[in-house]
Design goal:
Layout lengths: L7 H15 L4 H29 L3 E5 L8 E5 L1 H22 L11 H17 L3 H20 L6 H30 L4 H10 L6 H15 L9 H7 L2 H11 L1 H14 L4 H24 L3 H22 L2 H30 L8 H4 L7 H15 L5 H15 L3 H10 L1 H15 L15 H15 L2 H14 L2 H9 L1
Antiparallel strand pairs: 1-2
Helix pairs in contact: 1-2, 1-4, 2-3, 3-4, 3-10, 3-14, 3-20, 4-5, 5-6, 5-10, 6-8, 6-9, 7-22, 8-11, 9-10, 9-13, 10-14, 11-13, 12-13, 12-18, 12-19, 13-14, 13-17, 14-16, 14-17, 14-20, 14-21, 16-19, 16-20, 17-20
């Protein structure tokens, strides 16, 4: 397969920025074009995935014909493609939700151009083969995400955008310090070349300092405990289509960073893996009880993300092929269901007497929307890990990998803490769909097509999990053989 096919999943959303901006005066045409472009980008990603799989060979594109490590490298290995497919699926659903949203923010001329910028940043971050360009794409995500949040209908949107921007600026400083430290120590930022040089001289000056800065960066990016404090306000205030992307996809940039750190760049640093397990367990506990204690549906789901990221970090920290595959399956499934749940919360808020996702306001709103209730209940079951939803597969794999690697203490803690998920899901479901309030009347709101598609996919991947598990196991085996990635890029 020609490596040139690496470009369309990146260039298509990039072209969406100027094209959707040019159509800013005709909202309907802008929306139609945006949906078509995002669907096309998803199609290219699927074509790339199947083409790479059928050829049994990962792809490498050296831009400008400069051989690595001197030029800009794009790669499509099993991990790249897994993360790219996840992001493109959820992004397409996000565009569908935005098209059927009643929020004023979605009608601003710059909304879709900024949304495409966010999509470009995510696609580029998962395809790039060097550390500096990962930083560049991460900054595109931050700028577009902050601007989209500031445009929210919510009165606290600007405040939330400032919080996100400033904490992301701190992460950017850490990222640059980490990049600079590793470049000073090894003279390269290409992932493959850097991995070779770190293996040859692991004790080089500034190497561990660079690792520390990158660890802090990815903890902030993933909103992991204790760097989670910006997330609840941010997701509660952002436009629903955007909060769904940020809570399900943008935090996965940190997860992707840790996967590269622990399996490619610093595979022998056991302290990092232990730290991820400790932080992951703390996140499961704090996020679960935080979600149970909040009185706002979107904030509840934001805290829930903290707990779900905790499960993923634990799987990465255990660092066995099976635990890595479990972490990837959890990452993919969480992206689907968390975006769907946030969309459902936003859809109910749009139908409330006062537009808010506070449980006090949402009480009784679900009485007139039983379909949304069914979708929410299925999504909650997926979050809690109840069969036959995809969340069951994710948690089963995490628990089984803990037993396999004899990590009984952290496994017992996260096992008990995961029960909390069921309590806050049931509580929110009862409040919105079973409790009643006289002043609640039928009211139109955001369309349910996007969350319905995501919940349906979650159900399908729960009943027929083999394709996703196969892709995750294939990526895990690839990650545990860093020499294959190095040879692919530097050959």
């Amino acid at each position: 397969m020609n490596p040139i096919f690496l470009l369309p999943p990146l260039l298509t959303p990039f072209l969406g920025v100027p094209l959707s901006l040019a159509l800013r005066k005709n909202h309907k045409v802008q929306v139609a074009l945006s949906l078509a472009l995002m669907f096309t980008s998803l199609g290219f990603t699927l074509f790339l995935l199947f083409g790479s799989f059928s050829a049994s060979q990962p792809l490498v594109l050296q831009l400008g014909a400069w051989q690595a490590p001197f030029g800009i490298t794009l790669t499509a290995d099993p991990l790249n493609l897994f993360m790219l497919l996840m992001s493109q699926l959820v992004l397409f659903a996000g565009f569908i939700y935005a098209a059927g949203s009643t929020e004023k923010a979605t009608r601003y001329p710059a909304f879709y151009p900024l949304f495409f910028a966010l999509a470009t940043g995510l696609s580029g971050a998962f395809l790039t083969g060097d550390l500096f360009n990962l930083f560049v794409f991460a900054e595109i995500i931050v700028i577009s995400g902050a601007a989209l949040t500031a445009s929210a209908d919510d009165q606290y949107g600007v405040e939330a955008a400032y919080k996100y921007f400033y904490i992301s600026t701190l992460a950017s400083v850490f990222f640059l310090l980490g990049v600079g430290s590793l470049y000073t120590a090894y003279g390269t930022l290409n992932f493959a070349d850097l991995a070779v040089r770190i293996a040859e001289a692991p004790a080089a000056p500034l190497a561990m300092i660079g690792l520390a800065f990158l660890t802090a960066t990815f903890l902030i990016k993933s909103a992991a405990f204790p760097f989670h404090f910006w997330q609840p306000d941010f997701h509660a205030a952002a436009p629903t289509a955007i909060s769904a992307m940020l809570s399900s996809l943008v935090v996965k940039l940190g997860v992707y960073g840790f996967l590269r750190l622990t399996t490619l760049l610093f595979p022998d640093v056991e302290l990092l893996k232990t730290l991820l397990v400790v932080i992951g367990v703390a996140g499961v506990l704090y996020g679960g009880f935080g979600a149970a204690g909040t009185h706002h549906a979107k904030r509840m789901l934001a805290y829930s993300t903290l707990a779900q990221i905790g499960f993923i970090l634990v799987g990465i920290g255990w660092a066995t092929p099976f635990s890595l595959a479990a972490a990837l399956v959890f990452t993919f499934n969480h992206a689907l269901i968390k975006s769907a749940m946030l969309m459902l919360a936003g859809a109910m808020a749009s139908r409330a007497p006062v537009k808010s996702a506070s449980f006090e306001v949402l009480v009784g709103v679900g009485k007139y929307h039983p379909v949304a209730g069914i979708l929410f209940l299925l999504g909650g079951m997926a979050l809690a890990g109840i069969p036959p939803l995809n969340g069951f597969t994710s948690k089963l794999m995490i628990f089984w990998s803990g037993i396999e690697s004899a990590n009984y203490l952290p496994l017992a803690i996260i096992g008990v803490a995961s029960i909390v998920t069921l309590t806050y899901v049931i509580r929110s479901f009862i409040k919105i769909w079973f409790e009643t309030r006289a002043e609640v009347k039928p009211k139109p709101g955001d369309q349910l097509l996007a969350p319905a598609l995501l919940v349906a996919l979650s159900l399908i991947l729960g009943i027929w999990a083999e394709p996703l598990v196969f892709l995750a196991q294939r990526a895990a085996v690839w990650m545990t053989n860093p020499a294959a990635y190095i040879n692919m890029v530097l050959k």
